[in-house]
Design goal:
Blueprint lengths: L1 H15 L1 H72 L25 H32 L6 H36 L15 H6 L7 H14 L1
Helix pairs in contact: 3-4
Length: 231
């Protein structure tokens, strides 16, 4: 009997001993869980900071874009305004065939073909004639210097065609020089600026465009209609 009691006591002792081990395992697991929660709580603010910074950047991006777009439009307006003003001013520098001479500005109540207008158109006619004479001299020197007997017939043909075109252009300019001389004679006789057919004023603007004009705009239109009907 004593042996059986000792065996029972030994069994009960073995059954009771593991209980404290299980309790310690549960405590360790609980401690680990609390430690993980603390670590996660510590990491969460750091992770939230980049998200908040990204949100701030996205919110500030439209404001910067809005600030940049406003000056861009104002700069475009500032740049386009001078371009339009220049485009308006350019045609006023030259109207007639002579470059570099500004058009005559008429004054209110000014007499037609006064001394200032006569001097202005005399300057135009003389400058125009001088330029045409220089072109004639240039053509003569060019033909004298470049004239040569090429062995190739194609080269000779091209040279002759160039010379013939230049001579035709100089012939037209020779006739124009005669008209300029007639206009200068009319200036000396105080007959410049009046229509030869009806005697009315040709007009300063028409004379600016064509200083050798001898007909007013109405008579010129009738003359062109007659030429079309006749020929």
């Amino acid at each position: 009997m004593a042996v059986k009691k000792k065996a029972v006591k030994a069994r009960t002792a073995t059954k009771k001993k593991p209980a404290p081990a299980r309790k310690t395992v549960k405590k360790v697991a609980a401690k680990k869980a609390t430690a993980k929660k603390k670590v996660a709580s510590k990491k969460s603010p750091a992770a939230s900071k980049p998200a908040a910074a990204a949100a701030k950047k996205t919110a500030a991006a439209p404001k910067r874009a809005a600030k940049k777009t406003v000056p861009a439009s104002s700069r475009a307006v500032k740049k386009t305004a001078p371009a339009r003003s220049r485009a308006v001013k350019k045609p006023a520098t030259q109207i007639g065939p002579v470059p570099g001479i500004a058009p005559y500005v008429e004054r209110k109540g000014e007499e037609y073909m006064n001394d200032h207008q006569v001097e202005h158109f005399r300057n135009i006619l003389l400058t125009w004639k001088r330029g045409l004479m220089e072109e004639v001299d240039r053509t003569v020197h060019h033909m004298q210097d470049d004239a040569a007997n090429f062995p190739d017939p194609n080269d000779r043909a091209t040279q002759e065609s160039e010379f013939s075109m230049e001579l035709r252009a100089r012939d037209r300019e020779r006739k124009l020089i005669k008209k300029i001389d007639e206009s200068i004679r009319h200036l000396d006789d105080n007959e410049f600026g009046y229509c030869e057919a009806c005697g009315v004023e040709i007009g300063v603007k028409r004379l600016e465009a064509r200083p050798t004009a001898t007909l007013c705009i109405d008579c010129k239109i009738l003359d062109e209609i007659r030429e079309k009907q006749m020929g």
